[in-house]
Hints:
Layout: E1 3-5, E2 12-14, H1 36-61, H2 65-81, H3 94-121
Antiparallel strand pairs: 1-2
Helix pairs in contact: 1-2, 1-3, 2-3
Amino acid sequence: MKLMSCPECESEILERLGTVCPKCGYTVGYFNETNKRPKYAKFFALSVFLPFISFLTIILTSINTISFIFGIVIFAVFAYKSCPYFYRNLFITNFEKVFFWLVWILVNSLLITMIYNVLNKLQLI
Ligand SMILES: [Zn+2]
């Protein structure tokens, strides 16, 4: 078990989520610091909805070359926006960090494969 120092009273407490500091009652979690909650919620929403919107965009824009280039641009912007790199200070545990990176990499490789297939179909490559 990893230890961390309590942000309120600096005594040693477990790093695990939900740990309550025996001295001051601080709870380890996402929702202690006021600015973390909206940011985490935003990141979570982005990592769920953006790939989904990208997926629909790729399907809808695959009818012709010009619209598809537009679709690829949207995909690239969304992939960038939902990159866990910009949210790295939100992650408390390594598991979370690895989990979100894996999800991001997996989802975006699937979308890139889709883009590749459409490009093939449109005979652009
Ligand atoms: Zn404490």
